Amino acid sequence: MDEKLLKRYREYARTDEAFAVLLVKKHFTEAKGHWVDAVSYRRYETSRDSMHFRFVLGGFFKRKIQPKYPPRSAYTNKGRFDEHAYYIMARAITWATAHTDIEEQKAEKIAPLQFEIKGIYYDKNKDSTGYFKDDAPPEIKALANNLYDRTNPLWDRAEQYINAPEFIYEVSEKLIIPAKS
After folding, report:
1. Maximum distance among all alpha carbons in the chain?
2. Which residue among 87, 143, 152, 157 sits deepest, i.e. has the most Cβ atoms within 10 Å of its Cβ?
3. Is the pTM of this model over 0.85?
4. Helices 3-13 and 83-107 meet at what angle, rounded to 10?
């Protein structure tokens, strides 16, 4: 097992670049059979979700080099296969192979198929008026007349109808930019 490679891969897996690559793979079928090179990206700082990006720019490079994985027997001890350890090592080898292949293709000046993703993160209830949501029952909406009196037993149910911010993330645009001939 290559501990240095595993350490480098684990550090990478926590980066914004790694999450940008995952977002691209999730939204582009063109990523299949290609390495994803995320060149520029910016996350939404206000979101706790690692997959919420304002934009991701980059390119798809054809896979020319195939990863060479160790035999499964190297991860078997006393007849038990350590699937997790094998999976992490396979991901690390794939990651290293991708970076090697992308760098070689860039050195050969091979133009990738370029992509762009734009995302939006917004409060779904931004334009809502009133203390409670529009779909709240009338008896719940009536509680808004005196918000300081919380003695009414309806308040137990009313809390689910409070018009609180509800943030939504959507990919608003995704583009494939053809390579120049």
Report:
1. 74
2. 143
3. no
4. 80
